[in-house]
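Quick start: read one record
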Amino acid sequence: MLEFLNTHLYGLMPLPWWGYVVLVMLWVHITLMAITLYFHREQAHRSVDLHPALRHFFRFWLWINTGAPTKQWVAVHRKHHALCERDGDPHSPVQYGLKRVVLEGAELYIDEARKQETLEKYGKGTPDDWLERNIYSRFDYMGIGLLVVADILMFGAAGIIMLAIQLAAMPVLAAGIINGVCHAKGYRNFETNDASTNLWPIGLFIGGEELHNNHHAFPTSARFSVRPGEIDMGWLHLKVLSALGMAKIRRVATKPDLGPAAASPDLDALRSILINRMHVLRAYMQNVTLPVLRRECDTLGTSANALLPTVRRWLTWQPQLLAESDRKSLGELTKQLPSFDLVLEFRNELKNLWEGAHTSNERLLEEFRQWCKRADESGNQYLKDFVAYLRSFQPSPEPA
């Protein structure tokens, strides 16, 4: 008996201790790439087209590592985008609390994936071939069973530890950190209508999914990195796969195309502004709101260095997502600083124009021109410069 245990303790493929570490890290990395490239960027958002061989490999890999059929994952994720932070969002920390999403994120996913109405409404366009119907969806947890057998057979006792890490990685990283922490902590580049945040560089090796605010700003973009210094590991893999002919990148978020300032914006320029509204709001924050706040603080003889980061955080979140104390502090600040209050009013009016974009093109253009005229005549140089920036927008293609 002892001889049998000693012979089979390390399985058919014994490795040095560091070999197990490298293998598990590589294994988890492939699983993350399969989720971000296949489940997320290709199937959920159609931003890339993967080679059929790579697509089938990812489907099999995710079957044995997560047991999640493509239709279920895609449907739950699309519903998250459609109802983000509102009633019906499958895994919003705003709705369920951060602690529950981090600790029970996998359970929240499973509960939503079992709802047939979610699958029917949000799971359209996912694979429906013989393999999907008869194996991956029909026997969704058989793949994990095969992984259990393979790990123990190949690596013996060490395989049990490897298996625990392999199966725990996705509930922790995807369901917990990405769905939970990336909607509560971190920084925001864009003023999206949700609580999405970026965790980079803390989550550098989560396949780019940690750049969650960028993704919610441009959901159909194949590239999640926006600012210099942000690294999207999934995008780097896509570039390599594209060069090898294994992937075709369909859509990437672009920056505004600027040219000579026009005397008055036309409909094409306004359409470009609407397409790039996330960049426009970011530019307004950097070039109008914060400079005005700094100038007024200097006038009052107070330091703005500590205040600017706080105000920036307040203004990148929608008011309903701020704590009551933060909303009160912001209101008190606007009462003390009239120029700051003025530029916030113009900012809110500009955002309201976009929300009324369902009106006729002619009316929308006229309201926008009136906004530019009033901003130009406000006496605030930062607003005047921003109007010149808006007038420099050139026609651009549809957004990513």
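Confidence is low (pLDDT under 50) at residues 1-5.
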